[in-house]
Amino acid sequence: ANPPTISPAVEDSPYPVDRRSAALAGRIIKETGVTAGYCLQLGSGDGRLAYDLAKRSDLNIYCIEPDAEKVAAARKALDAAGLYGVRVTVHQGSLDKLAYPAHFANLIVSGSGFSPDLGAAGATEMYRVLRPCGGVAYLAAEAAPSGQLAKWASSGGVPAREMRTSAEAARIVRGALRGAGEWTHQYADAGKSGCSNDQLVKWPLKLLWFGKPGPAHIISRHWKPSAPVSINGRLFVAGQHTIIAVDAYNGYELWATDLPAVGRMRVSSAGGNFAADADSVYAATGSVCFRLDAETGEIQQLYRIPTRAARFVLDQPRTFELNLDDKHSGTVTIQATAEGLVARLVTVDDNVTNLHREDNPSLGDCWELFFDLRPAAERGGLYGQGTFQILVVPATTEEDVTSYKPGAGSAHPELTVAGALTDTG
């Protein structure tokens, strides 16, 4: 049975038409370029600016407002719009003592509900929570001239080189933290120094953020996977078949790009396959090194080993040995026949077991087969027409039957599998 879903009524807009607020929201988005991440609004007013920003972006917006009546009114209106607690949250509190973690805000905005009469303490707090490496504060000249807003920001320690003023606003773009380190390779840098040269991290340590990327795509630490790498306020994590980028200062997931078998295990002996610089992320898998754009995750270039690959036809069986360790090895034999492509898998393992045959075969003994039938010049990334993944579970000690489960890929061919358990696997 399907239980009914009851959702609160949502108004198209709980506010009267206000072209001024809509224009301000549009100007903020256009001039800052910040459309995702965490936004802090200083002074919620009636919640209208937060509403207009949420409608024009993917921002998660927090409003801080000292006036209890304004807080209640903003919450009511935003709840009616279906945004409160989902995209927008309004907190009651002081603007000169913000109860938010340092560096969390990708964007800080103010509107007509904000006044710069707070003194230096409010400006110091605003700058404390603004994200380094490109976080933007847009102080709109709604309640005060932009020059006065810039003077207020300067009183809180905002460097003049990070500020720009116009008739519409005072804008701050925060630079990198002075003394902050980076970790661009498996052991800190290309020289394997194991030291980031960070001058800021001190005891006692405190939690800054928690959340994604989580364990779903990540290789267990017991398998000794590649270390995350970080530079310019971004943290890059290599999962089993995915590279994930998150904001190093607040944990917001920036992008995720799927790459086949990019996660490397036992790096203590195999070495790392993952690095980053100011503009790019590099990940080696198989005979290819991918260069991804650090900001978007898009594949920019593929570097290949400069050797001529062996070519062969499949009119006769071709056998390839796969040796992982003393207890896990086998062969793959492939041949093209009139009926289709035939793959014969032989597992050498004294205890073939898999308790997750139906739900998640990769948690037990199985063959993970990746097929890429594209021309060599078009290969790169797991997804695309002509690529697919198959997970084959052989006969095991629990169940003397062979089965398969489709993996990644937009389309999979018709498959027939058969097999039996032997004395050797």
TrEMBL record:
Span of domain Methyltransferase: 40-134
Entries under Pfam families matching the protein: Methyltransf_25
Residue spans crossing the bilayer: none
Record Gene3D superfamilies: Vaccinia Virus protein VP39 (3.40.50.150), YVTN repeat-like/Quinoprotein amine dehydrogenase (2.130.10.10)
Entry-linked InterPro entries: Methyltransf_25, Quinoprotein_ADH-like_sf, SAM-dependent_MTases_sf, WD40/YVTN_repeat-like_dom_sf
Protein name (database record): Methyltransferase domain-containing protein
Natural source organism: marine sediment metagenome
High-level lineage: unclassified sequences, metagenomes, ecological metagenomes
